[in-house]
Write a structure and sequence with these properties.
Number of strands: 5
Oligomer: single chain
Shape: globular
Largest sheet: 5 strands, mixed
Number of helices: 3
Structural class: alpha+beta
């Protein structure tokens, strides 16, 4: 298990345990953190948008072209922070990953 530090849309902090090999989206959805995940993690809807703590952005695998294109279409896109949680696979290297649930579009 890997610990995630999550700030919800109301500004409350949460500490969640995530299974390695699962997506961050799955952990957030399972804990009712406001992630809709309409497309089920297919990188097609952006309802799992998050804002990473800036220190974490470059530590993760870079977003692919499809993810980047989808993120850039969002009103609340922030370069160097925005990611889709369905595209972040939990590993032990992500211990204490800090993120904020993205605003609803």
């Amino acid at each position: 298990m890997t610990t995630l530090k999550v700030t919800d849309r109301d500004g409350r902090s949460h500490t969640l345990e995530a299974y390695e090999g699962s997506s961050v989206m799955e952990s957030l959805r399972d804990e009712d953190m406001g992630i809709e995940a309409i497309c089920g993690g297919q990188c097609a809807c952006a309802t799992c948008h998050c804002l990473l703590d800036e220190a974490w952005f470059d530590k993760l695998t870079p977003p692919g072209e499809d993810e980047t294109e989808l993120l850039e279409s969002l009103d609340h896109y922030e370069a160097g922070r925005s990611r889709l949680t369905c595209q972040i696979i939990v590993s032990s290297q992500h211990e204490d990953l800090e993120l904020t649930i993205g605003p609803e579009e």
